[in-house]
Design goal:
globular, two-stranded antiparallel sheet, 3-stranded antiparallel β-sheet, mainly alpha
Length: about 550
């Protein structure tokens, strides 16, 4: 057999025996430079497409791009102006460091991972865990975030899902052992081993037994309803270390052991499975308590011996920042999938692991690469070398809402996901309404994310946005600007800076001033200009 478990495990162990990097080898800009060199060797130089390299993007575009990517919030006109007048050579690096230190960094990436987890939920009751999940991740990312520690918390979590945010991943699958196994493999290793649940994987080397051996780490998970202070209903992730050995009728009740179903005789108990980690072949005996099983598999998944752990995170974050992953889609990678630049991904993943899985370090590296700093081009055909330009990214719903708050001054309300006591108030808040309309699963390919009629109608006709765009109301941002800025050209520039983070082009300025001149009411004319900018493709995308 070409891919035996023993030979596969031996290969993974051999790849893991790498020297630990010295501190100097982890300098973000040195690593970024090496990443660019490897990309050139593997992609566009190898295919003679060097002449097609996009130029370095201008400062205004870079600042909007990196601000939205890192904090989810566009830069202010004052920040754009200050950045433009800064003549120091390291101003981009310093901007990245400043953004990584802002509280919005944690909020932005908490919302991203909330969506990664919750978009694949098995039922809506899982949303009870969303506010606590958001807070857990915000605190984690705004501290000294290490991805292995965050992953470990998710895999081993117990407790009330309203209080313990790390329980959200298990709650999202309502404690089902098979579904939880599939999500842990998909999110933390990028490997969709659930395709081997009922038969050997059709396109990867994974066997049906390997899926069920991994599931044997999680049979004792249980989701139990609980009451807090006799009033509030909730659920808790609870280990089951006593009781029935056989599979219960309700898989969310947990069982002492996992049995692989007999497909020919589904009424029978099936084969008892021992916990085995399919990547390395490491295994435990059956009969062990839940805590020992999950602590052990969490250690094995996040260990440097498992290179797919670092690769999955690096690939996903590279895709979010640059616009195209080394593997696409980002949650379907592995030894039988095609990587567009394997040496580059190996190098960056190894450095990420050597950094102690330092999340902020990785963002600093990616932001310093030439690949990230190039102008954007539309997503390229398969016959064009990847990473010769950045790819435009459609704003996630939370980024769009933040932009609307910054541009129009609309209120988040008191029930946003930072304050909400339950998911109903969070998801019916102004931010929640935008999420319902514009949200999408962050794990899908970006070329599969498209606009919709409800989204267009929301931006064109929403009463909330119409009120916020009013020029006659001196309580709106536009109303105040009309009072404070009497020069029409200056006001057009201010609106472009607020909406698109750039000055208007000469043709755009001419068109806007002609519209103002031809209008009977100045306020109405600038309402039209603001409306057009908010509904533009440029506003809805990050270039």
């Amino acid at each position: 057999m070409p891919f035996s478990r023993i030979s596969l495990a031996a290969g993974f162990f051999a790849l893991a025996l790498l020297p630990v990097a010295a501190a100097g080898e982890l300098d973000p800009h040195s690593v970024a430079q090496r990443v660019d060199e490897l990309l050139a060797e593997e992609t566009y130089q190898a295919t003679a497409d060097t002449a097609e390299l996009a130029p370095r993007t201008d400062d205004a575009t870079f600042l909007r791009r990196v601000s939205l990517d890192l904090t989810g919030v566009p830069p202010t006109p004052e920040e754009i102006t200050a950045f433009a007048f800064d003549t120091t050579s390291d101003k981009r690096a310093r901007a990245v460091q400043r953004l990584l230190a802002q509280r919005q960094f944690g909020e932005n990436w908490a919302r991203y991972w909330r969506d990664v987890i919750m978009y694949r939920r098995s039922e809506d009751r899982a949303l009870l865990a969303a506010p606590a999940l958001y807070q857990f991740l915000t605190d984690s990312f705004n501290g000294q975030p290490r991805w292995d520690e965050i992953a470990h918390r998710f895999i081993t979590a117990t407790g009330d899902v309203r209080e313990e945010g790390a329980t959200a991943l298990i709650m999202a699958q309502m404690g089902g052992a098979e579904d939880t196994t599939a999500e842990i493999s998909r999110i933390f290793m990028g490997i969709q081993i659930q395709c081997a649940q009922c038969h050997d994987h059709p396109t990867d080397r994974w066997k049906r037994e390997q899926f069920h051996e991994l599931t044997a780490f999680f049979p004792r998970l249980s989701i139990r309803p609980v009451r807090v202070e006799g009033k509030r209903r909730s659920f808790a992730v609870v280990p089951v270390d006593r009781g029935r050995v056989k599979r219960p009728n309700n898989p969310r009740q947990g069982a002492l052991e996992h049995f692989m179903p007999d497909l020919d005789h589904p009424e029978e108990e099936g084969q008892l499975m021992k916990p085995v980690f399919f990547v390395t072949g490491q295994q435990l005996d059956d009969g062990l308590p839940d805590s020992e099983r999950r602590e052990t598999i969490a250690d094995w998944i996040t260990d440097r011996k498992n290179r797919w752990f670092a690769k999955a995170y690096v690939n996903r974050m590279w895709s979010e920042m640059v616009g195209l992953g080394f593997y696409e889609p980002v949650d379907d990678i592995g030894p039988d999938r095609e990587c567009s630049a394997p040496k580059t991904l190996d190098y960056l993943s190894d450095r990420f692991a050597a950094s102690g899985y330092d999340v902020k370090w990785l963002f600093e590296v990616i932001a310093a690469t030439d690949a990230y700093g190039r102008e954007s081009r539309s997503r390229m055909d398969d016959d064009v070398a990847p990473f010769t330009a950045a790819c435009p990214q459609r704003l996630r719903a939370d980024q769009l809402f933040n932009a609307l708050v910054e541009v129009l001054g609309i209120s988040e309300g008191d029930d946003d996901d930072k304050k909400a006591r339950n998911y109903r108030t969070a998801f019916n808040s102004p931010r929640g309404q935008v999420n319902k309309t514009f949200g999408y699963d962050p794990s899908v390919r970006r070329d599969e994310v498209a606009g919709s009629i409800p989204q267009a109608l929301f931006l064109m006709n929403s009463p909330q946005l119409a009120r916020a765009m009013s020029g006659d109301d001196r309580g709106t941002s536009l109303g105040r600007m009309l009072d404070e800025i009497s020069d029409d050209e200056a006001l057009v520039s201010e609106l472009y800076l607020r909406c698109l983070a750039r000055e208007p082009r000469e043709s755009e300025m001419k068109t806007c001033l002609e519209h103002v001149s031809n209008s009977n009411e100045r306020a109405d004319a600038f309402e039209d200009i603001l409306w057009a900018l908010v509904n533009s493709t440029e506003f809805l995308n990050r270039n």
